[in-house]
Amino acid sequence: MATPPVPNSLGKLIIRVLARRTDKRNDYCPGTVSVETTPLDPIPTSTVFTVRFDDGREEDVDVEHMRQFQLEPEDVVRVTQRRKGKARVCSAQVLDVEQWNSAEMAEVHELDQGPDADDYEIEGRFLSVLEDHIHEQWNERRVSTRTLLRDQELNQPERNKCLAGLGFIITLPDIPKSKRSLAKFIEASGGLVYDDWSAIVSLNGSVEVAGKRIAAKASDMRIGKELRKMPTSTLLCLTDEPRTTPKYLIALALGVPCISKDWVVDRVVLVIISSVLTTLVLIRITGC
Fold first, then answer.
1. How wide is the angle at C-alpha 199 spanned by C-alphas 146 and 160, nearest 5°?
2. H or E segment and range at residue 265
3. Which of 110, 126, 149, 161 is deepest in the core (most CB within 10 A)?
C-alpha cells in the first residue's frame, strides 16, 4: 500500500516520490512533491512538478519520470552510506518492508560485497534506484497527475463536490488536452467521467434488415463494469453542439440528456458564488 498524500495547512498536498535526477546520471532518488490546489483550479493541467529531493536540491520533473516511493521485497536499490567521512555506495536487494509505511525503513541485503555482505535496516532517504531497474521493476508504480491528487478531497472545500452523483460521457472535437482538462475539472468537483458507453451499458442487440441495422431491446441491456464499480445516480452527455458521434447518438437513443459543456463550469461557479454569499450573510448576521 503506497503512502497517501498528506495535506498541510497551506492547502498543499505533500507526496513522497522517487524522481529522476539529471545530476545523478538519471538515477531515481527520493524526494517530495508539493502540489498546490485552489477551488477554481483544483487540478493543475501541467504534468511537470517541482521535486525537492531529500538532500535539498530542487528540480522540475515530469510525472513520466516519477514513481511512487513504495518499496517491495526483491527490489534492487543503491544504498549510500558515509563511513569514516567517505560515501560508500553499494547495490542491495530489499528483504523486508514491514516498517516502510510507519518509519520509511527497509531491511536490505548487500549484493556486491562478496563474503562481507551484510543485512541491515536502512532509511529510505539513503536509497536510490538505477534507471534500468526502474523500467524493469517499477512500471506498476508509475505516477500520474491523478495519482498525485487522488486524496485531494482531504483539503478541498465541500463546495467542490457539487457534481457528486453525476456521471458524464464527453463527446467533443478531437482535442485531447481540452477533453482531459474538462474531465479533471469534473472529477475534482465530485463527478465521474466514463470513457465510453461500453463502460456504462452493454447493448447486445440482434442484426436486422439484411445486416444494416442492430436492434437492442431493454432485455438486451446489461450494466457495464465501470458503472458497477463507480455507480452514479444521473448520466449526462457533454458536448459543444449536436453531433453524429456514437457517444451522442447512443445518448439520444437511451434518453440521456445532452447538455453543453459550459453547464458544468457554470454549475460549479454558481455553487462557489452561493457559498461565498452565504458566508458573507452569516458574517453580517453574527458579526464575526
1. 40
2. helix 261-286
3. 149
**How far apart, in whole angstroms, are the C-alpha atoms of residue 138 and residue 30?**
14
State whether residue 270 is helix, strand or coil. Answer: helix
**Do 49 and 61 touch, CB atoms closer than 8 A?**
yes
pLDDT in tens, 33-66: 877 654 444 455 567 889 999 999 999 998 889 9
pLDDT at res. 158: 45
pTM over 0.85: no
C-alpha cell at 286: 453574527
Cell numbers found for residue 113: 560485497
Taking every pair of Cα atoms in the chain, the longest distance, rounded to a whole number of angstroms, is 85
Residue recorded with cell 459543456: 261
pLDDT tens profile 117-142: 889 999 999 999 999 999 888 988 88
191 SS3 class: coil
